[in-house]
Amino acid sequence: MNALPASAEVGGVSATAAPVANSSGSVTNQAIQVLQGPYITNTYGSGISCQGPTMNFTPYVTGAVSAQKPFNGNYFDNVYDMRDLTGDFNDDGEAIGDGAPDNPGDILYRVPVRTGQKDNYNLSVGFSMTWSSPLDKKLQNQCKEAAAANIDLMRQQAANKRLDFEIARLKNCGELIRSGISFHHKSPYASVCADVVVNNVTHIKQHIHTIPKVSRKAEDLGGVIK
User: Fold this and answer.
1) Which residues face 65 on adjacent strands?
2) What is the pLDDT of residues 111-121, one digit of tens each?
3) CA–CA separation, 25 vs 27, rounded Å?
4) Mean pLDDT over all residues of the chain?
5) What three-state secondary structure class fits 138?
6) DSSP string of 51-80?
7) Range from 55-59, 153-157, 220-224 carrying the lowest mean pLDDT
8) Which residue, among 31, 41, 36, has the nearest Cα to 129 in the 3D structure?
9) 173 and 192 Cβ atoms separated by less than 8 Å
10) Region 32-54 average pLDDT
11) For residue 67, what are the contacts with CB-CB under 8 A and spacing of at least 6?
12) Do the beta carbons of residue 123 and residue 63 sit within 8 Å?
C-alpha cells in the first residue's frame, strides 16, 4: 500500500507532507563446524592394521563487536520560530497574522534528542566433542590378537637372527685366535672377540700330569747308596 502525498495551502504558503519510512538492519550468522575425523589406525606389519575408538575435542571462541563511529549519545534538534503575529489587519484595524511566519528560519532554541546509539559486544566460548567407536567388537578383538601374535613372531625372528650372529662371531673369532690372529688390545675392535675363549690357546683347562718313578743302580750314579 502506497501513501500519497498530502498537500495543503495556508495563507498563500504551500506545504506538502510526504511520509517516508526507512528501515535498515543487519544479520550476522555464526556457526561452529564439527569435522568427524577418521578412526585412528595402527599398523603392525604383515598387512595387520587395527582401528581404535576416536574422540574429537574442538574448543572454539567467537566474538563480535558492533559500533557506530563517531559515537553520539544525543543530538540537538532546532526549534524554528513559526509565530505569525503580524502581516495583516482585521476589520478593527488590529494587526493579525497573514498566514506566513514573521521570522522564517530563525531558531528559537535547540532541543537535545537521544539517538539511542550504543555498542554491541558478543563473546561465545565453548567446545564440541564427539566419540566414535567401532560397532563390531569381535573383529576388533581378533585384530588385536593377530597384532599380538605378529609382534611375538617378530621378536622371535629378531632373537633367531641375534643367535645366528653370535654363533658366527664365536666361530670366526675362534678360528682367528687359533690361527694366532687377533686385534691389538688398544684397537676399538678388540672387544669384538674379547669374550671368545679357545681351549689350549687362550685358556688351559685344569689338568694333572703323572711323573713316572725312575730307579737307577748305584754304580750308574757314581756312588754307593747306603
Assistant:
1) 121
2) 998 888 888 88
3) 7
4) 78
5) helix
6) EE-EEEEEEEEEEEEE--SS--SEEEEEEE
7) 220-224
8) 36
9) yes
10) 75
11) 119, 120
12) yes
